[in-house]
Write a structure and sequence with these properties.
The structure holds 2 protein chains of 2 kinds. By secondary structure, chain A is α/β, with parallel strands linked by helices. In chain A, 53% of the residues lie in helices and 7% in strands. Chain A has 20 helices and 11 strands. In chain A, strands 7-6-5-4-3-2-10-9-8 form a 9-stranded parallel beta sheet. By secondary structure, chain B is α/β, with parallel strands linked by helices. Chain B folds into 2 domains: 52 residues, D-lysine 5,6-aminomutase beta subunit KamE, N-terminal domain (Defensin A-like, 2-Layer Sandwich), CATH 3.30.30.60; 152 residues, Rossmann fold. The longest helix of chain B is centred in the C-terminal third of the chain and has 15 residues. The chains are: A alpha/beta, B alpha/beta. Chains A and B meet through helix 7 and helix 16 of A and strand 1 of B.
Chain lengths: 516, 238
């Protein structure tokens, strides 16, 4: 691929500024924990199950210690103390935290070292499980092989996990590489992970551990039959971001959508809460080898894709910096962007090419996640299908990595079986027909594409300067992204953020951070 | 009387596509043909049979439909809106209402797609037509996505809203219809039905909106000035 002539000094400065932004965010993150982080600790220790009303045990345990103002010590402290008092298993210890006659005040009793000692074998078992799942995934990918990029990514969203599995198989049979099960609308706003297999959802299917297993099993079986590894995707986002990251890790998902900014801007989740959650989830994801997909594409559904193109790049640099601080490799950072420019604009395709090539070049090792047109599509499926043809062409010509295929029925309904078929068949044609187009392209240094790419980079550079100066929380409150304003103390989930005490204990995080 | 028109007047040519849950085969193709005949279509030509999975066949079909529709008998209620532009709307509010018009909008229920409500309310607007936030004589509040019906009514009461705008975009199994109906029912119960209720979305039209108890319905391609004109006109008529 021939690069666009852009100023590499400017790119270096963008990274330095993004790094400053990430440092600012970490000054908050490193001093806090959240209810969902603590629930993930319990899950990692093997705590499972839900009560008759469907409330997971991890919620009942953590909420009780939150209400008693004890969570600043970390739920692991109380779990360890329950073990030392005689609980035989982690499950039993967690049940005691949830339902025991009295809340453990944490006073007197064993020393911190004794608690850590009691937890140590369980911590080891937790990581043996996580690492075992990673190993299994890597072996399967190696044995069966993943297809060439751009990977063809399609969504299923029936609401019924068994229909999803069936549709996932059908999509794989006609050439899909990646299957994402869209979550039931508004799951991001519920502060617990539902339990068991589900057959009724709205606009998608509930993300549960059992549902992950059902789709994984279907894809494993179908992949073995087709001789091709099939990748599974779900959402580590919303109020249960870290818990889903853990469940995705142990159930061998390949990718998760993971971006605090999406929750903040589009779901009104509290910025402090979700940035803390994101850090812990990314630590878990880094360990498990999962690829994240970030959600910058969404900015362009509310803000204008021409005027605000630079906000995507700004956010990608910040996401990279935050991801790196959580231990993610570049190869795990599927930064997002989209083909959302108004289709009635003359040369809109040139602007799209400029953006796609710029992003590809700024993030060369990253599995870039490229999203199709949605905003300017309406009910004319034939026109939409042609839009998707151009989208596919730009995708292959600029060597995007993960391509979520556009649906001709976008804005009409969630994809039908035949919509996915038509999208995959169309993409196969374009990818085959233009397979080596990228090698043939030389950019006109005085042309519109180069000028546009330089402009977007310059604007992102300036915006990163502003965000670095004022800090991420302030920038988000001001509406710097997606034209949406979210104050630091507004939104859902703030009550679940707790300042870590001097005696905060989290052996799972310690291992994830490489401290023990 | 009108018939579908493809190549020659009244030839009744239609195209359709669908999937049957069987593997591609001669029998599958015959099943598709019989399926179309059962729909009342004639001269069924299955243009293609594609394998959309090992157990699924996708068909594109051309056929003749002999049905004719008496166009003269069709009555569809359409929203009658004065053709005012941005400046005229502000002027009319200033002169005839004499205070700012308060509009509250939201995507309700489980719908997370704000594209429609944003196009109407956000400053930028849609297709070069400024959104309601840009009107000096309109106070527009965009409550965003996934707003509960009760919360929407509470907020509208707090703001003394003149009009409520509801957007419903992506839904499954006609959830948008039930949810919209519930909003109006709740407004009646709470004595808030004197406000104007407007419904918008790609699968919404004026007729459906009226049936659900709304004052007006707006489909795809609606410009913000049309919505503003309707609200202002209706308020003056009241």
């Amino acid at each position: 691929m021939y690069p666009l002539p852009i100023d590499s000094k400017l790119v270096d400065e963008c990274r330095a500024r993004a790094s400053q932004v990430a440092d600012g965010v970490h000054r908050f993150i490193d001093l806090h924990t959240t209810v969902s982080i603590e629930r993930t600790v319990l899950r990692a220790y093997g705590v499972d199950g839900a009560d008759a009303e469907g409330v997971p045990l991890v919620n009942t345990s953590v909420d009780r210690y939150l209400k008693s103002d004890l969570l600043s010590r970390g739920i692991a402290t109380f779990l360890g103390r329950a073990l030392l008092r005689g609980a035989k298993t982690m499950q039993e210890a967690a049940e005691e935290l949830a339902y025991g006659a009295a809340v453990d005040s944490g006073e007197s009793g064993p020393s911190a070292a004794e608690i850590v000692g009691a937890l140590a074998p369980h911590t080891e078992a937790a990581f043996a499980k996580l690492d075992g799942a990673k190993k299994k995934r890597e072996e399967d990918r190696e044995r069966l092989g993943v297809g060439r990029t751009p990977w063809k990514y399609v969504i299923v969203a029936t609401g019924n996990i068994y229909d999803d599995a069936e549709q996932a198989r059908a999509a794989a049979q006609v050439g899909a590489d990646i299957i994402a099960v869209i979550r039931s609308t508004a799951q991001s706003l519920i502060d617990y992970v539902p339990y068991g297999a589900t057959t009724e959802g709205y606009g998608g299917t509930w993300a549960t551990q059992e549902n992950f297993r059902i789709v994984r099993a279907a894809l494993d079986e179908e992949g073995a039959r087709l001789g091709r590894y099939l990748q599974q995707v779900n959402y580590s986002s919303g109020l249960c971001m870290p818990e889903i990251a853990y469940l995705a890790a142990v159930e061998r998902l390949d990718m998760v959508l993971n971006d605090a900014m999406y929750g903040i801007l589009f779901r009104d989740i509290n910025p402090r809460r979700t940035l803390c959650d994101q850090y812990f989830s990314r630590r878990m994801i880094a360990r498990s080898g999962i690829v994240i997909n970030t959600g910058e594409d969404n900015y362009l559904t509310t803000a204008d894709a021409v005027e605000k193109a630079h906000t995507v790049v700004t956010s990608q640099f910040i996401n990279e910096a935050l991801g790196r601080r959580a231990g993610l490799r570049y190869e795990q950072l599927g930064l997002g962007h989209a083909f959302e420019i108004d289709k009635s604009i003359e040369d809109s395709l040139l602007l799209e090419i400029a953006q796609a090539q710029l992003v590809r070049q700024l993030f060369p090792r990253h599995p870039i996640k490229w999203m199709p047109a949605t905003k300017h599509k309406a009910g004319d499926i034939f026109w939409s299908h042609r839009v998707d043809g151009l989208y596919d062409l730009v995708g292959v010509a600029t060597e995007q990595s993960i391509e979520l295929l556009g649906m001709m029925t976008e804005s009409i309904h969630t994809p039908l079986l035949q919509d996915r078929f038509c999208a995959i068949k169309g993409a196969d044609y374009v990818f085959t027909a233009a397979r080596h187009l990228a090698d043939e392209i030389r950019w006109n240094p005085e042309g519109k594409i180069v000028a546009r790419a330089r402009q977007v980079l310059a604007d992102a550079h300036q915006q990163l300067g502003e965000v670095a100066a004022e800090g991420m929380f302030s920038a988000v409150a001001r509406g710097a992204f997606a034209d949406v304003k979210r104050p630091e103390t507004g939104g859902r989930g703030l009550a679940g953020v707790v300042e870590r005490g001097p005696d905060y204990l989290n052996p799972i995080l310690d291992v994830l951070e490489g401290k023990s | 009387m009108i018939r579908a028109y493809g190549d020659r007047k009244d030839d009744g040519r239609v195209q359709l596509s669908f999937t049957l849950p069987v593997a591609v085969s001669g029998r599958a193709k015959e099943a598709a043909r019989l399926f179309c005949e059962a729909l009342g279509l004639k001269d069924v030509a299955v243009a293609t049979v594609e394998s959309a999975g090992s157990e699924f066949s996708f068909f594109v079909v051309y056929a003749r439909a002999d049905v004719a529709i008496d166009f003269s008998k069709i009555v569809v209620p359409e929203v009658v809106v004065p053709e005012w532009d941005f400046k005229e709307i502000n002027k009319v509010i200033e002169k005839k209402i004499g205070r700012k018009v308060v509009v509250v909008g939201a995507c309700t229920g489980s719908d997370a797609h704000t594209v429609g409500i944003d196009a109407i309310l956000n400053m930028k607007g849609y297709a070069g037509d400024k959104g309601l936030e840009a009107y000096p004589w309109i106070d527009a509040y965009n409550l965003g996505a996934q707003v509960d019906n009760a919360a929407l009514l509470t907020r509208a009461k707090e703001l003394s809203a003149d009009a409520i705008l509801v957007s419903q975009i992506m839904t499954q199994r006609d959830l948008h219809i039930e949810n919209s109906r519930q909003l109006v029912d709740l407004a009646h119960k709470q004595g808030q039905r004197k406000m104007l209720f407007l419904l918008g979305g790609p699968r919404i039209d004026h007729k459906l909106a009226r049936e659900l108890g709304f004052d007006a319905g707006f489909g795809p391609g609606t410009r913000p000035s049309q919505v503003a004109s309707f609200i202002v006109d209706a308020l003056i008529k009241k």
